[in-house]
Description:
Blueprint: E1 2-5, H1 16-23, H2 32-50, E2 57-62, H3 63-67, H4 73-87, E3 92-97, E4 110-114, E5 123-128, E6 131-134
Parallel strand pairs: 1-2, 2-3
Antiparallel strand pairs: 1-4, 4-5, 5-6
Helix pairs in contact: 1-2
Amino acid sequence: MRIWNTVHIPGLLQTSDHALSVVRLAIPPLPEHEIALRLAHRTERQRVILGPEPPRYTAMVHEAALRMRFGSLDVVRAQLTYLADMSERDSITVLVIPSDRGGFPGAGQTVLYAGNPVPQLDTVQVDSSHGPEFG
């Protein structure tokens, strides 16, 4: 799996406190039970890359995502430490695109590429302002 994010740290690499800070900014505000469900779902999804035989996972993150402040400074520090720790796992690669590289096609969109043993089954999801698109 490969994912590209410009503003957020990928959900599979977020700490629960960071994710909580992000989800609390939803518009319109979410009820507490919905927030709890989203956090539980995110935690469950993370098992995919933390299990005994995880797939190769590459996260391409723009430097801006690392500088965005979601939550307190302690939450930010813990998130960046967690991201660095996760990048040390054999199955996880984190690539950071420096801000000084300038603009690029697709800036502002999240892209997920899920490869399969059968290439014809590969899936691409692009999140845009009008919702996700699959290809």
